[in-house]
Write a structure and sequence with these properties.
Blueprint lengths: L11 H5 L23 H17 L8 H4 L3 E3 L15 H26 L5 H26 L20 H18 L19 H19 L4 H11 L10 E4 L10 H8 L5 E3 L1 H9 L5 H4 L35 E5 H13 L7 H15 L4 H9 L12 H12 L4 H11 L22 H6 L1 H10 L16
Antiparallel strand pairs: 1-3, 2-4
Helix pairs in contact: 2-4, 4-5, 5-6, 5-7, 6-7, 7-8, 12-13, 12-15, 13-14, 13-15, 15-16
Length: 478
């Protein structure tokens, strides 16, 4: 099995290059600064980076998932730690980023590839499949954030008021689309080549593994809502998903702006010091003697000191995100071997797969520790503790896996939020100034309420529960 390595240098030319037709630039009405046709590779690369930024950023106007899952807490301005999504229009900005910056560009890239008469048929199929997989990934993020959303009728200039479609029906269609994309790959050819972004090499075999890993994830998210549909997806995808330590699909940020990791921009370039470790996170890491603690956070006076979630405090008096998170080129993770091994352990417990759940649980933890810079000896010592060992750790399989997944997803706040809702663990206690219970979804954007009111009203009603509230569960959250 060939190990999938990180792609450590951005194809800058691929991200900014454009293709334009030759015209008389002296024509009065011709905008010479605007390309008439943008290269598919540029559109695809831009959309991939925007999606990575959306999931990786810690900008409080856009991504507050590290706060929601209480890995971090704010120390001065507490609105987001108090679950105030409206003050900074977070749902509006997240919605716009998904639809305008990601899905729209992917749709445009697809159109350009389909019209390309120069590339080979095999290359065209591979590029379309790569675009499709990223579109499916992004759409699942939208559903997992809001629930029922515009889908088949969205991003149509002739239909400015799209209907909200059922989240479960969208998931079903995503799996159908994913199957078609995976079946269309031609491993004898390449796709976007150096602009593929997610892997160091251009082998389509990596994309097939990535696509199946995504299918495995979607199947497990669907398991409580549609068991039969989910079981089929899981059993089909699992044998073809990531299965080797170190395998990972990442966005390869650069040390050169503007393609640096947005965490560096938020934590270093901005000059702001808004975030500290929570007592919730640090107390758990210390209780388990977790070797990742020094990679996750800094010490204060030789100790790891947490700030109580949702309370004010001086940045310098409490541990804050570790140096590794301040690296300009820290990759942004889409899916990795750690996640897939946790899914295998859970699938075995649910009798969807055969095997030993403890083995995969151990593999997941080991991969996480090693990827953060730990040693095999630290892995062995950590797993040997009764509080960590699968046979003796506290709780049901959901609690054991949920706790360790929450720790392993330390720098993947969005995925940690999805899994905490799905596995019902850890259980988070809101801070003293919280304006709502723990959020299990984002409310719809205010712009949708104002500009697409009829469909917004229908979409809110179709959610059930309390309608468009942060406490209304998404269909898969049973």
């Amino acid at each position: 099995m060939k190990k999938i390595l990180l792609y450590t240098s951005l194809s800058i030319a691929g991200m900014v290059s454009t293709v334009s037709c030759t015209k008389d630039l002296t024509t009065l009405n011709n905008d010479i600064k605007k390309p008439e046709v943008v290269a598919a590779s540029a559109l695809y690369s831009s959309a991939t980076k925007e999606l990575a930024d959306l999931l990786t950023s810690t900008n409080v106007n856009l991504n507050i998932y590290r706060l929601i899952v209480q890995h971090w807490t704010e120390n001065t301005y507490l609105d987001e730690s108090n679950y105030n999504l409206i003050k900074r229009s977070i749902p509006d900005l997240f919605w716009s980023a998904i639809y305008t910056d990601v899905l729209k560009d992917l749709k445009e890239a697809k159109g350009v590839v389909e019209k390309d008469a120069v590339i080979s048929a095999a290359t065209k199929k591979n590029r379309l499949a790569q675009i499709e997989i990223m579109s499916i990934y992004a759409t699942s993020v939208a559903v997992n954030t809001f629930g029922n959303v515009p889908y088949s009728k969205s991003m149509d200039i002739d239909n400015p008021f799209p209907v909200y479609e059922d989240g479960q029906a969208i998931y079903n269609d995503l799996l159908t689309r994913l199957d078609a994309a995976l079946a269309s790959f031609d491993a004898s050819d390449e796709g976007f080549g150096a602009a593929n972004m997610l892997f160091k090499d251009n082998e389509i075999s990596n994309w097939i593994k990535f696509g199946n890993s995504l299918k495995f994830r979607l199947g497990m998210i669907l398991i409580d809502a549609a068991p039969e549909k989910a079981a089929t997806a899981v059993t089909e995808a699992e044998p073809k998903a990531f299965d080797t330590q170190g395998e990972i699909a990442v966005f390869p940020y650069s040390t050169v702006p503007p393609n640096t990791n947005p965490l560096w921009e938020d934590l270093v370039q901005s000059g702001r010091h808004d975030f500290n470790a929570t007592t919730v996170m640090l107390d758990q890491l210390k209780a388990l003697n977790d070797p990742r603690i020094g990679q996750f956070f800094t010490k204060v006076g030789g100790q790891f000191v947490g700030l109580k979630y949702g309370t004010k405090g001086s940045y310098v008096n409490y541990s804050h995100p570790g140096d590794k998170l301040e690296k300009k080129d820290l990759p942004g993770v889409f899916i990795d071997y750690t996640e897939i091994e946790f899914l295998r352990a859970e699938a075995i417990e649910r009798t969807l797969l055969a095997g030993d759940a403890a083995t995969h649980y151990n593999n997941a933890i080991a991969n996480s520790i090693i990827s953060w810079g730990g040693t095999p000896a630290e892995v062995t010592a950590y797993l040997a503790q009764p509080t960590v060992a699968y046979a003796t750790a506290t709780g049901t399989y959901k609690q054991k896996i949920g706790l360790q997944k929450w720790i392993a997803f330390y720098n993947r706040g969005f995925d940690a939020w999805v899994e905490a809702r799905r596995l019902d663990y850890p259980v988070f206690v809101p801070g003293p100034g919280a304006i709502s219970a723990w959020p299990v979804r984002f409310t719809y954007p205010v712009n949708e309420q104002n500009l697409n009111k009829e469909n917004y009203d229908k979409g809110s009603l179709s959610l059930g529960g309390d309608g468009d509230r942060v406490t209304t569960k998404i269909f898969w959250d049973k």
